[in-house]
Automatic annotation (TrEMBL):
Lineage: Bacteria, Bacillati, Bacillota, Bacilli, Bacillales
Gene3D superfamilies membership: 3.10.450.50
SUPFAM superfamilies in alphabetical order: NTF2-like
InterPro entries, A to Z: DUF4440 (IPR027843), NTF2-like_dom_sf (IPR032710)
Residues in DUF4440 domain copies: 12-116
Protein name: DUF4440 domain-containing protein
Source organism of the structure: Cohnella kolymensis
Amino acid sequence: MDNIQEVLEGYFKCWNEAFISKNGDEIRNFMSKNFVGYWAHSNIDKPEQYDYNYDINNVLKQYDDAEKSFEPVSITKRKDGEDFLVVGTETNKINNIPHTAKCMFVWRRESGEWKLLREYIELEK
C-alpha cells in the first residue's frame, strides 16, 4: 500500500472488523513498535498515554456495537515521502450514537510498510 489514503482506509476497516471479532492483532500490525498515542477530552487536564503494547483486545471488548470512520482534513508529506502527518475527524459510532474527535496521526515507512508512529486524539466533547 503505497498510497497513504489506502493505508488510512485499511486501518479503519481493520478497526471495524476488530470490533466484531474482538481481536486486535491486525490493528497492531499497522503500528510501529515505537508507537505512542495520546487520548484526551475536555474533562481531563493531562492526556492518557499508551503505546504499542496497550491492551487493544480489552478496548474492543468494551463495545458491542461500534464503528469507526475518518475524514481527513489535511495530509502532509514529510521527509521526502517517508512519513505523513494526517489531521482529521474520527467518528466512533457507539450504539448508533456518534462520538467525534479531532485526530493527528504520524505514519512512517518502516521496512517498506506504512506504520502508525504516533496518534493524538482529542474528543470534541
